[in-house]
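Newbie here. two chains, one complex. Structure please?
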Amino acid sequence: QKEVEQNSGPLSVPEGAIASLNCTYSDRGSQSFFWYRQYSGKSPELIMSIYSNGDKEDGRFTAQLNKASQYVSLLIRDSQPSDSATYLCAVRERGSTLGRLYFGRGTQLTVWP
Amino acid sequence: EAGVTQSPTHLIKTRGQQATLRCSPISGHTSVYWYQQALGLGLQFLLWYDEGEERNRGNFPPRFSGRQFPNYSSELNVNALELEDSALYLCASSALTTGDYYEPQHFGDGTRLSIL
């Protein structure tokens, strides 16, 4: 059973702070990693994808991947109240016949003014 | 560019009935995925269709089935509905993959299925 674990929330940070969201995965064969943001009652929205070890930055978001440690994280700099949502970590295996994503349970983030 | 569209937005059924949910992928995407998100639970993978074929199936009973049409749109059918089938059903699509990297999946707004 392949598992994706996210740090338990909820996570609460003040506006302007850095929010750090963590995710570990069990399958070493995993090759593609994604972070989705889901507002309450809405569908998941892709915010970051990362495929190689290291950091990937996109605006206020930075994804970090360490395949040796089977760890992926998302940093949100200068957090805004509009960042308040549930963040889902998703992992995809290598192999053309295995298209499914494995999702973590999500970490609920609240950014207070 | 239009995103993934799903219909209906809401669907109310009673136990034992059958439900049909529909999904149109982003133009140019050939893969369609179905997920179930029950209240308080994570996203659970249901089915993956690509080029009209079922490629992978999650750990759900056979009464969950679907198909993909030549225009790449898809239907999810749930027979003999049970109370625990009440959930948000999400459809996602992605483009063909190249090499070892997979194009990300993009989600529609979902269909909320309520079983009375």
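Moderator note: Chain B is about 0% helix and 50% strand. The two ends of chain B are 37 Å apart (CA to CA). Thread marked as resolved.
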